[in-house]
């Protein structure tokens, strides 16, 4: 995620972020991706978020690996 005011990264510490890297997968629909991931055993760590220019969520697979799904708007 890019934020020019923060040097190209967002501070997610108040949103369940941690000291690990999270890779993001661009999807056509964040809600659909969340539904499919949870069907396959993932849990939602950071729920659907609309921050203006994009939508995203963070999930965790059954092994504890975190990942994000996102979609640019417009």
From TrEMBL:
Q: Which SUPFAM superfamilies match?
A: Glyoxalase/Bleomycin resistance protein/Dihydroxybiphenyl dioxygenase (SSF54593)
Cite the Glyoxalase-like domain residue spans from the record: 25-69
Concerning Pfam families, the annotation shows: Glyoxalase_6
InterPro entries cross-referenced by the UniProt entry: Glyas_Bleomycin-R_OHBP_Dase (IPR029068), Glyoxalase_6 (IPR041581)
Which Gene3D superfamilies does the entry link to?
A: 2,3-Dihydroxybiphenyl 1,2-Dioxygenase, domain 1
What protein name is recorded for this chain? Answer: Glyoxalase-like domain protein
Taxonomic source organism: Mycobacterium xenopi 4042
